[in-house]
Amino acid sequence: MEEHHIPQAVQIRNAHVHNLKNIDVDIPLHQIVGIAGVSGSGKTTLLNCVATIDTVTSGHILVDGRDITGLRSRALAK
């Protein structure tokens, strides 16, 4: 049986994409977290970047310290 690593945290450092500029945030996984803001403030963009639906144009997204920015689909699936 294959053991799977369960990530514990997502970190975003100096990310730039669409309407997100210089965002730094730590998101603990397996806990309820709320994201609030006015329309157009980047809530959905932030979630899409973390889910790798969108890619950041600069900065880094780290899952348990591993930079997932720029990984290809096959590497992300692991």
Tell me what you see in this structure.
- The protein is of the alpha+beta class.
- It contains 2 helices and 4 strands; from the N terminus they run ββαββα.
- It has helices at 43-50, 73-77; strands at 9-17, 20-28, 58-63, 66-67.
- A 4-stranded antiparallel sheet has the order 2-1-3-4.
- The radius of gyration is 13 Å and the shape is globular.
- The two termini are 16 Å apart.
Using brief descriptors, characterize the structure shown.
78 residues; alpha+beta; four-stranded antiparallel β-sheet; 2 helices; 4 strands
- State the end-to-end distance: 16 Å
Q: What share of residues is helical?
A: 10-25%
Contiguous helical run count:
2
Strands ordered across the widest β-sheet? 2-1-3-4
**What would the principal axes of the Cα set say about the shape?**
globular
Radius of gyration: 13 Å
Q: N-to-C SSE series?
A: EEHEEH
Poorly predicted tracts of residues: none
Structural class from helices and strands? alpha+beta
DSSP strand content = 25-35%
Number of strands: 4
Overall average residue pLDDT = 77
Major sheet attributes: 4 strands, antiparallel
Short description:
This protein is an alpha+beta fold. 17% of the residues lie in helices and 33% in strands. It contains two helices and four strands.
Topology, pairings included?
Layout: E1 9-17, E2 20-28, H1 43-50, E3 58-63, E4 66-67, H2 73-77
Antiparallel strand pairs: 1-2, 1-3, 3-4
